[in-house]
Amino acid sequence: TLHLHYVPLREGGGKPVGALITIRDLTQISMLERARRDLVANVSHELRTPLASLKLLVETVQSAPPPDIASRMLEQMAQEIDAVTQLVDELHELSRLESGRVSLKLEPLPVWPVIERAVERIRPQADRKQQVICVEPAADLPLALMDGDRIGQVLLNLLHNAVKFTPEGGTITVAAEVLTLRDDEQPSRPDRPPHPAGTWLLIRVSDTGIGIPNRDIQRIFERFYKVDRARTRHAGGTGLGLAIAKHLVEGHGGRIWASSQEGHGSTFWFTLPAA
Ligand code: ADP
C-alpha cells in the first residue's frame, strides 16, 4: 500500500512553480494491522466454541438432571475450561516469543536425556492408544547448544501431535543424527531448508498417522493453522503448538520443517547447532 500526498507550490501571484509530493509506504503498517485483525478474529473464534459448550452444559446441569448425568457434565465442563486455559497459556507464550521477551539459556547439552524425558512424559497418552514409541539413539552425537527445557517443550509439542494424529496401534519414532554441512552441499537438498555451513544435530519425530496434505504442509507452522477442521475437530488443540515450536527452534538458530504422505504418516524435523 502506497500513500501519496500532493501539495502544489505557488508563487505569491498564484503561479504554480512546483509541487511537494510525499509517498509513504504503508505496506508494513497495513500488514501489521491485518495480522492484528486476524489474531483478534481467530482468538474470538477459538474462544466461542468452548464457551458455547460451557453455556449449554451449565444450563443442562441447572435443569437438575439425574446425578450421574450431572457429574458427567461437570467433568465435561472441567475439560472445556482446560481447553480455554491452554489457549490462553499458549497465546501468552507465543506473544512473549514474538516480542522477544523470552531469553533462551543456551548451554552445551546432550540431546538424548532431553528426548527421553519428553518421550516418558508422552508415553501414558501413547499407551492409551496402544501406540509404540521407538527411540533410535545414534552413537557419538555431539552436544547441542540449547536451552534443554525449551527444546523439551518443542519435542513434547511434536510428540503430542504425533500421538493425536495417529490411530490406535500406530508407531511413533524419534531419532537424532549429526549433520555436517559445507556451503556447496546446500542446493542439492530441496527437501531441507538451507543452513549455515557447520555441524548440526538433526532430530526427527515421525508417525504412521493420517498425514498432512501437500498444500497445507508449508502453512501448519502459522499460528492457528489447522488442516481441515472437520477432520481434526475431535482432536482438539489450539493450532498454536507448531508456531511456538518454530519460534523456539529458530531462536536457537535451527530450522523446523515437515514432510508427509497423506494417509501414511508425517515426519517433523528440526536442527540445533552443535556446541
Ligand atoms: P494443534 O493444537 O491443532 O495440534 P499445531 O500447531 O500443533 O496445533 O498443529 C497445527 C496443525 O497441523 C494441526 O491442527 C494438524 O492439522 C496438523 N498436524 C500437526 N502435526 C501433525 C501430525 N503429526 N500428523 C498430522 N497432522 C498434523
TrEMBL record:
<keyword id="KW-0902">Two-component regulatory system</keyword>
<keyword id="KW-0808">Transferase</keyword>
<dbReference type="GO" id="GO:0005886">
    <property type="term" value="C:plasma membrane"/>
</dbReference>
<dbReference type="GO" id="GO:0009927">
    <property type="term" value="F:histidine phosphotransfer kinase activity"/>
</dbReference>
<keyword id="KW-0597">Phosphoprotein</keyword>
<dbReference type="GO" id="GO:0000160">
    <property type="term" value="P:phosphorelay signal transduction system"/>
</dbReference>
<protein>
    <recommendedName>
        <fullName>histidine kinase</fullName>
        <ecNumber>2.7.13.3</ecNumber>
    </recommendedName>
</protein>
<feature type="domain" description="Histidine kinase">
    <location>
        <begin position="42"/>
        <end position="275"/>
    </location>
</feature>
<keyword id="KW-0418">Kinase</keyword>
<dbReference type="GO" id="GO:0000155">
    <property type="term" value="F:phosphorelay sensor kinase activity"/>
</dbReference>
